[in-house]
Amino acid sequence: MLINKSKINFYKEHGYLILRNCLDKKKILTLQENVEKLLSREFKNLDITIKKNNIIQKGFPLLKKKYPMVNSKIYRSINRSYFFSKFIFHQQISQLAKKILEVKRTEFLGCISPTYRIDVPGDKKNIRNWHQESNYFKDVAHGHEATVCWIPLNKSHAKNGSVIIAPGTHSYGNIKANEINAKALKSQQFILPKNVLKNSKKKISIDANIGDMAFINFDLFHSSGKNQSSSVRNTAQIRFIRNDVLSYNPPMMAELYD
Q1: Are the beta carbons of 155 and 243 closer than 8 angstroms?
Q2: Which phi and psi (to 5°) does residue 167 adopt?
Q3: What pLDDT digit, counting tens, does each position of 14-26 carry?
């Protein structure tokens, strides 16, 4: 019983829930091995040699600094790969999401934006400042109808930029954010106004190990931390939504109608 009534009540009250040692570490290792294979292929094309046990930790910072377009290509390749889809859509993850959202059947779950995230030391360009998922994804009208599943793929803590949350702030509902347009390898952002952050008395950085995971309400205030360590932090994320609620209305994808 990874999730019981007490944990669901905690999630409802605080807007998040951390589950410890609930994922198969072998599957995470397999995912990282496949990422290493993609990196190795690009290094071969660039005639770069990196020791096998340093491919992720040395490879991503090198590409980010010297070959940003190749780094962007790798990022897209991972997120569109079969091996990442196989990992992120694992049945155990969806079953936990089903319990968090209190849906009766897995068919009533929708999925949005599965993402492999790479945070290299010192990078400030791709930090997500204080925001709510509900300003990015409009599939449902209420934050409790959707959740972010956040999975650390190596040890995650304050120093290497783990996600920071403001417990209880989901109770404010969706708040109009300041939009920052996308530009030059930097994504669009919806940043919360500074005045609303003053009302959140407590902010915590999630410390987590491989095998742990967290669920975050779509309306909870949260932010990326700054990676001030000497190592790359890797995480995986997927958003689950209830597609059985009246407000469910997935946005149209314009590119399908060109």
Answers
A1: no
A2: -55, 140
A3: 999 999 999 999 9
Q: Which residue has the tokens 């902010």?
A: 203
Q: What is the strand order of the sheet 164-165 is part of?
A: 204-205, 164-165, 222-223
Least confident of 38-52, 93-107, 108-122, 243-257: 243-257
Report residue 10 CA to chain centroid gap: 21
Strands 189-191 and 164-165: unpaired
CA end-to-end span of the chain:
47
pLDDT at 202: 87
pLDDT at 256 over 50: no
pTM of the predicted model as reported, rounded to 2 decimal places: 0.92
Those residues whose C-beta lies under 8 Å from the C-beta of residue 203, and which sit 6 or more positions away, are 164, 165, 166
Please tell me the predicted confidence (pLDDT) of residue 201. Answer: 74
Per-residue pLDDT, 185: 63
Lookup result for tokens 């909870």 = 220
**Most confident of the ranges 84-93, 116-125, 214-223:** 214-223
